[in-house]
Specification:
The protein is α+β, with helices and mostly antiparallel strands. The chain has 3 helices and 5 strands. The protein is about 40% helix and about 30% strand. A hairpin with a 2-residue loop joins strand 4 and strand 5. It is globular and about 40 Å long. This is Roadblock/LC7 family protein.
């Protein structure tokens, strides 16, 4: 199974999911998939992916300076989106963005972890 299939299945498996992907702390996207209706939203969902990569990079650098190890998970909850990032391997994170109005943090975290485990098998 390829990574894009895994990402798309993560989106369809979570109510309100708008994007799923793999990002690097170098700011580059490895793979990203969008919900078909995401283009109709009033915010820049493609920019969300880049900003999550930047947040992951900064959090990793801060954790390194503090001496507490790798950043495993990031949760950013806003009025419009719940955005999650979870480490696949050091330097790479799986991400999931869910509309806040329908988001269930527990279900979103579970779905992201399941997606990451499947991605690890593919890598």
């Amino acid at each position: 199974m390829n990574v894009n299939t895994i990402l798309n299945e993560a989106i369809t498996g979570v109510k309100g999911a708008q994007f799923a992907g793999i990002i690097g702390t170098d700011g580059l996207s490895v793979a990203i998939a969008y919900h078909p209706g995401a283009a109709e939203l009033d915010f820049d969902i493609e920019l969300a992916e880049l900003e999550l990569a930047d947040l992951a990079s900064r959090a990793a650098a801060a954790a390194d300076r503090i001496g507490v190890g790798y950043v495993r998970d990031l949760v950013l909850e806003t009025d419009a989106l719940l955005m999650l990032a979870s480490q696949i391997i050091p330097g790479y994170y799986g991400i999931l963005g869910v509309l806040s109005e329908t988001a269930n943090l527990g279900k979103a975290r579970f779905a992201l972890q399941a997606m990451i485990e499947r991605v690890r098998v593919e890598l």
